[in-house]
Write a structure and sequence with these properties.
One of its GO terms (biological process) is deoxyribonucleoside monophosphate catabolic process. By secondary structure, the protein is of the alpha/beta class. It is built from 5 helices and 5 strands; from the N terminus they run βαβαβαβαβα. The chain has one domain: Rossmann fold. Strand 4, helix 4 and strand 5 form a beta-alpha-beta unit. It is globular.
């Protein structure tokens, strides 16, 4: 996989930062495949409760610009997030390949709008139980992406 790959990682920011440690580990793994444009998503020092550095319009425009520049989107979708759903929708509209990672949890289901979009190639949803499984899942997906 070329180091020129530009990866947009999507994870919940304002919807809840419960999975920040998982985001960090995924991002660190993704770096071996290319540039992670949204590395800040896994930054534990980013506090969405404190006054944001950028206003909402600037955040939106910055993120859409990064979506336009990326080669693919990797999204951790366990923590429900309107923003992540929006990013995924925009990526699909831009014809960007999307790979969603989801940890099944008792009493919670992934949105049918995400699960139902899985076509096995350009939009793929994969369940996992532990972050230790993710490196192999990413390797397999990025290999698939390389063959498209």
């Amino acid at each position: 996989m070329s180091s020129e790959l530009k990866i947009y990682f999507a994870g919940s920011m304002r919807g809840g930062r419960n999975d920040i440690d998982i985001y960090y580990k995924i991002i660190e793994n993704l770096k071996q495949y290319g540039q992670v444009l949204t590395e800040f998503v896994g930054d534990k020092t980013v506090d969405c409760e404190v006054a944001p550095v950028l206003d909402e319009i600037s955040i939106h425009d910055r993120d859409v610009s990064m979506l336009e520049k990326c080669n693919c989107v990797i999204a951790e979708v366990t923590q429900p997030s309107l923003g992540v759903g929006y990013e995924i929708g925009r990526a699909v509209a831009m014809k960007k390949p999307v790979f969603c990672l989801y940890r099944p949890q008792q009493g919670k289901l992934l949105s049918a709008m995400i699960r139902g979009a899985d076509n096995g190639s350009t939009f793929k949803v994969t369940d996992y139980n532990d972050v230790s499984e993710v490196p192999e899942l990413l390797k397999d997906y990025l290999h698939l992406l390389n063959s498209l």
